[in-house]
Amino acid sequence: MRFLPMPAINSLRALVLIAPVLVASPLLPDAIRAQVAVDIPDPGETVYEIQLGDGSVLFASIAELDEEQVVLVTVSGVRLEVDRSQLREIAPARGRVQGGEFWSEDPGGTRLFFTATGRSLARGESYIGTYVIVLPFAAVGVTDRVTLAGGAPVLFGEFEPFYLAPKVQVVRTPTAQASVGTLVFLFDDEMVGVAYGVGTFGNTDRALSAGLGYFYSGDELVNEPAFMLGGETRVSRRIKLISENYVLPDRVGYVLSGGVRIMGDRFSTEVAVFGAWADGDSGCCLPIVNFSYAFGR
Question: What are 147's strand-pairing partners?
């Protein structure tokens, strides 16, 4: 049985290849951006992420402004006078002040190592990355509650199978988010995947995620669900501890993992170890390294 025509599958594969170009297109050269007047907010206590002409980034509030200069107060209390012409971009900072430092929001908070959390990308946000070097992926926030991700393994120049992972957020509160979605792998003449629901409870620095999923192949559904339990806790400005664990259908096996996410403002690296137990056999420890870069934040 053929579920999608080959031209459609080839178009989806091409999307992964050109995704880095598409999401990077808003990154205009500094010379062009310098010609665009920056809208400077009124003075107040709001903390902003402020990019200067030399490429440096400040986390600061706006204390005063006039026709030529802006007075900034950084999160560490330093007062700076900056010419308006040196300002390239000003946006509300996403994160919190901790001990005189600004801890940016985790750029990879919509997932653990591989699986989704209940959080969703905002409209226009996106990220690209790779799982274990040979599994590139991309994701974009279609709306504030709808995220579309996709990717494919790169093996000997071939992209097979391609996968799509649409997700819809159905619950959003300050301490709880829940989403439903599917991860579907598209072969030339076959479609297999998992339909799931996942909830995340806590904040962006410390949270527990739990999910339930049913595997399917074509129109056949596995009767027994798989379960996922994961956690994340931030221990410093740049380091978050993460665990992602599974109970497979009929309890035929278990997958356990633990590792760290090293977070920049947009770029993040994950280093983890996975182990599996099934039918009396066990395997440990498989090292995993992931990379991702966020846009539109």
Answer: 141, 167
Query: CATH assignment of 106-295, given 2.40.160.40, 3.40.50.720, 3.40.190.10, 2.20.130.10?
Result: 2.40.160.40
**pTM value?**
0.80
How far is 254 from 275, CA to CA, in rounded Å?
8
Secondary structure in 3-state letters for the chain: CCCCCHHHHHHHHHHHHHHHHHHHCCCCCHHHHCCCCCCCCCCCCCCEEEEECCCCEEEEEEEEECCCEEEEEECCCCEEEEEHHHEEEEEECCEEEECCEEEECCCCCCECCCCECCCCCCCCCEEEEEECCCEEEEEEECCCCEEEEEECCEECCEECCEEEEEEEEEEEECCEEEEEEEEEEECCCCEEEEEEEEEEEECCCEEEEEEEEEEEECCEECCCCEEEEEEEEECCCCEEEEEEEEECHHHCEEEEEEEEEEECCCEEEEEEEEEEEECCEEEEEEEEEEEEEEECC
Domain 30-104 is of which CATH architecture? Roll (2.30)
Over residues 258-296, the pLDDT tens digits come to 999 999 888 999 999 999 988 778 788 899 999 999 987
